[in-house]
Amino acid sequence: MTIVTCLRVRNVAGTLAVAVLAIAGCQHEPNSNPSGSAAAAATSFADLARAALADRQDRIETDQIIDDTDLEILSQTPLIQTLICDAGTITDQGMEQIKRLPELQHLRLRHSPITDDGMQTVAAIKTLWFLNLPHSDCTAKGLQHLATLPELRNLRIGSKRLNADAATSVAAIKSLRSVHLIGVPIDDEGLKEIASLPELHSLYLDDSDVTETGWQWLFEHAPSLHVHVDQLHHDRDPHQH
Fold first, then answer.
1. What is the Cα–Cα distance from 77 to 239, expressed in whole angstroms?
2. Taking CA 147 as the corner, what is the angle to CA 99 and CA 162, rounded to the nearest 5 degrees?
3. Is the distance from CB of 63 to CB of 84 less than 8 angstroms?
4. CATH for 2-172, among 3.10.20.30, 3.80.10.10, 2.102.10.10, 3.30.70.1450?
5. Predicted confidence (pLDDT) per residue in 105-139, tens digit
6. 62-88 burial: b if 16+ Cβ within 10 Å, else e
7. How far is CA 38 from CA 71, 104, 157, 217, in A?
8. How many CB atoms are located within 10 Å of the residue 197 CB?
9. pTM (2 decimals)?
10. Rounded to whole angstroms, how far apart are CA atoms 149 and 129?
């Protein structure tokens, strides 16, 4: 099964274009360092931002250790649609800088303990399409803020403070097509809640509390859903490869 998602983007001339993301089987983030991203050889985050500004690029990706103060330069890069920070620590304070990116669609922050307050700030980024916060520090209450994001299609999140109630919060984000929960103790009832999402195509659960009874229910009631359990296809997934 191939899922085709159309994503509205704005090119450097300021006109609207349509990017088509074809997802065959597994859900993946867009490739790292594609054409149009800031130069990986830059020596600092500020260099990356300046390169993006000078070349009218729409993507910044870094594995350099950065913190909230490094993000202040983002006020000078209004064309950024993708921001990926894989090292260092960004906090709720840094999210205040990120939310000022008027075109942001894809955000990945690793090792960044974004709390419920930070999730409320994330909810102000109405253009956001892909949110990846694998090391957040939010609760189910914080996730509720994301239900106000009209374009959110992909959510990948982990937090030691998320409990089974997270299922209800996720199920309220009706626009979601792909959900990946990391270390969240979703149980059988929570699985049913998430499966009720009207646009859901892909579900990844790592270290959940779903039983074999829950999985049996899922494949009986949502046979077309693409499922990974602990990074592997469930053996009942008809779309495994």
1. 40
2. 90
3. no
4. 3.80.10.10
5. 999 999 999 999 999 999 999 999 999 999 999 99
6. bebebebebbebbeebebbbbbbbbeb
7. 15, 15, 25, 46
8. 21
9. 0.83
10. 8
- Per residue in 172-222, pLDDT tens? 999 999 999 999 999 999 999 999 999 999 999 999 999 999 999 999 999
Q: Which residues contact 89 (CB under 8 A, 6 or more apart)?
A: 67, 111, 112, 113
In angstroms, rounded to a whole number, what is the distance separating the alpha carbons of residues 34 and 38? Answer: 9
User: Which two structure tokens, joined as six digits, stand for 128?
Assistant: 């956001």
Q: Kind of pairing, strands 106-109 and 82-85?
A: parallel
Among 189, 233, 188, CA closest to 212: 188
The span from the CA of 117 to the CA of 92, in Å, is 7
CA 47-50-51 angle, 5° bins: 85
Q: Do residues 55 and 41 make contact, with C-beta atoms less than 8 angstroms apart? A: no
Q: Is 56 left (phi over 0), alpha (psi -120 to 50) or beta?
A: left
Long-range contacts of 40-48 (CB under 8 A, 24+ apart): 44/70, 45/70, 45/71, 45/73, 46/70, 46/73
Are the C-beta atoms of 230 and 186 separated by less than 8 Å? no
- SS3 assignment for 138-179: CCHHHHHHHHHCCCCCEEEEEECCCCCCHHHHHHCCCCCCEE
